[in-house]
Write a structure and sequence with these properties.
The protein is α/β, with parallel strands linked by helices. Helices cover 39% and strands 9% of the residues. It has a 5-stranded parallel sheet with strand order 2-1-3-7-9, with helices on both faces. Strands 4-8 form a two-stranded antiparallel ribbon. The two termini are 39 Å apart. Residues 233-234, 237, 239-240, 243, 262-264, 268, 270-271, 292, 298 line the site of iron/sulfur cluster.
Length: 373
Amino acid sequence: MVGIEIDYSEVEKRLGVSRRTFLKFCTGVAASLGLSTHAAVAMANAVADPKRRPPVIWLHGQECTGPTEALLRSEQPSLEHLILDLISLDYHQTLDAGAGHQVEDIKKKSMLENKGKYLLVIEGAIPVKDNGIYCKIAGETMLDLTHEAAANAAAIVAYGSCASWGGVQSASPNPTGATGAPQVLKDKTVVTIPGCPPNPANFIGTVLYFVTYGKLPPIDDKGRPRWAYGRLIHENCYRRPHFDAGRFAKEFGDEGHQKGYCLYKLGCKGPETYNNCPSLEYNNVGGGVWPIGVGHPCFGCSEGGVGFEKPMFSLADVKTHTPPNMFPAIETREASGTLTAGAAALAGAAVGAAIGATAMGAKKLDEKEGKQE
Ligand code: SF4
């Protein structure tokens, strides 16, 4: 970060965060995205430049407003400061101070003046049955509003599971024909940030990438940014050593549950759900605040076809049977009373990280020398 020309006093004033917090945040986002420190500098420059704030049109369909609520409740740095100052939020049905014709006129004016430049964020499902009459805003259907706003957007983000594929509204029997933005906007690229609620860090990282590079990050076949949804929860779960060792909680509150064993037999969908919950957790408080961390099985909220579709009691389709090589073999020493199962799992994860780093280093060296296994 040394030597870059950023007016931090102005940034501190505008974003309501300290210089240290601001730089830490940009570096953290760049690291999460798998980018170098140069990218962190580029992001810091982009955020610091008020002229680079993209106008944002934010639509709400069928939903509980959970994604916006999650975003507003983020702390350290306060993401609502960052999001409201990082972008120019021209229209947001929940946060707009104005109402009625006034805000609708502002939206139309902004879309006209910023043709091809604005970022469209869609939150909530879009009902398509009976020409979309089951969700109307200002007399127009969400279906029509989505097509209208998407026509001249620079980029489109579906934020939350409902916008990504329909979410809970689209669960059988789906009486309103609820579906997601990618299914409605078939001829457009829609980046999806699923989750119920989605992790706000995944949204802010994607927006920061857009602000910095003028394009959206690489995505998978479901439109999810690879940097955030590239791995199964099961791959990074701290209970994974218990899964590999065959130690499971079988009922809520039983001995295995109390000892922090694997939740697979309670219906955990971590083995078939892609998300970075184990790494980021929720609410910025640390200490294992995410569903599996507090003893609840993952229900696959970010995986279309799993979350809201597959019953909680169904066992997950295990996609990775072989333990990752970063996990050491677990030999519990409970019998001798020197190490609890939970401590074994934690120790396993910590030692595994070191072993994993060494193994990856060795693999890279082998590849370099043309000796790939
Ligand atoms: S099944 Fe669930 S609790 Fe068990 S290791 Fe996998 S993700 Fe974690």
